[in-house]
Amino acid sequence: MHVFFKKHCLPLLAVICSVNVNAQTSEDQAYLNVVKERAYKITAPLAIADSAKFYSVRDKIAQEYVDIKKIDDKKEQAIKSAKSENTDKQAAEARVKAIVEASEEKRTALNARFLKSLEKQLNNDQIEQVKNGLTYNVLPITYKAHLDMIPSLKEEEKKYIYNALVEAREHAMAAGSSDAKHAWFGKYKGRINNYLAARGYDLKKEREAWNERQKK
């Protein structure tokens, strides 16, 4: 019995212990645990009855966070190297610009693959919920705010606002941080403001009137 334990059980225990230690000390594993929790909160409202399907979707969302982080980490390292290796300021800036552009291309491709994989398990409404969950529901909140602020918006103006926010969300989904996600929406909100101003809306007055209506 003692010989059998030494021969068969000890190697197994070594493997088990090794796995536990790696899980506890790995930064990657720690980050994965965090994003699994985020992904769970995004998946829960989807009302997926099948548990295997539920956790498959959750893991896909968590993996999307992990893959985006990998792109960010590689980009930051490449930028750091470009700045240290190029003493010429213009050359360094050109290299950094190329790195950022390449990073955005990777994000776009990653996001397309991610959404394609979700289509196999979720319907369109559920995918919309995932997109909004990944971007703090900024699209529906901002769109509703514009409709409330300017009740006189025409249908084509509403369509422009909505489509601009959808485009912003596609970029924001693949952004790595909260600030980066909000920055994309900020960029497109600026475009919306310029569009509305060109259409003759005084946004300052519209906002003031909206605030008064909210107070009442």
Textual characterization of the structure:
The protein is 85% helix and 0% strand. By secondary structure, it is mainly α. It starts with a helix and ends with a helix. It contains nine helices and no strands.
Summarize the structure.
With about 220 residues, the chain is mainly alpha-helical. It has nine helices and no strands.
Key words describing this protein structure:
disordered N terminus; 216 residues; mainly alpha
- Counted by DSSP, the helix tally is 9
Count every beta strand, where a strand is a DSSP E run of 2 or more residues: 0
- Give the H and E element order: HHHHHHHHH
| Biggest sheet descriptor | none
Unreliable segments of 5+ consecutive residues: 1-25
Q: Report helical residue fraction.
A: over 70%
Q: Structural class per helix/strand content?
A: mainly alpha
- Rg to the nearest angstrom? 24 Å
What percentage of amino acids are in beta strands?
A: under 5%
Q: Tell me, what's the shape?
A: flat
Rounded average pLDDT: 88
First-to-last CA distance: 82 Å
Q: Would you spell out the secondary-structure blueprint of this structure?
A:
Layout: H1 2-25, H2 27-43, H3 51-85, H4 89-119, H5 124-134, H6 138-149, H7 155-173, H8 178-198, H9 203-215
